[in-house]
């Protein structure tokens, strides 16, 4: 069964490529490229899962995640995954503190992404 997935990345090509991949596996995807746009998209799309970059314009991914968790854009998605180039312990602790469910390094392994949606 396909999930509703919001892909948020300031790199338009990265966001669109990931969304295309997920669509090929039957998921309904929407993309956003800034923090504020992510919150607006989440409110209207009501995603089951969000793949969220950290480095975003307007609001960073940490703040977007906190706001999603607080219900600022509707019900909290069941799964919020950080997609980041930062893999150090400090970055992992920061994503956990912000409320992310998982922390994956870019470029994320497609099988790992699909498994999380499974």
Beta-sheet strand percentage?
15-25%
Give me the secondary-structure category. Answer: alpha/beta
Average pLDDT: 93
The backbone outline, from C-alpha atoms, is: globular
Salient structural properties:
118 residues, Rossmann fold, five-stranded parallel β-sheet, alpha/beta
SSE diagram, text form:
Layout: E1 4-8, H1 12-24, E2 28-32, H2 35-45, E3 49-53, H3 61-69, E4 79-84, H4 89-98, E5 102-105, H5 110-117
Parallel strand pairs: 1-2, 1-3, 3-4, 4-5
What does this structure look like?
This protein has five helices and five strands; from the N terminus they run βαβαβαβαβα. By secondary structure, it is an alpha/beta fold. The protein has one domain (4-117): Response regulator (Rossmann fold, 3-Layer(aba) Sandwich), CATH 3.40.50.2300. The protein has a five-stranded parallel sheet with strand order 2-1-3-4-5, with helices on both faces. The longest helix is centred in the first third of the chain and has 13 residues, at 12-24.
Short description:
The chain has about 120 residues and is an alpha/beta fold. The chain has helices at about 10-25, 35-45, 60-70, 90-100, 110-115; strands at about 5-10, 30, 50-55, 80-85, 100-105. Helix content is about 45%, strand content about 20%.
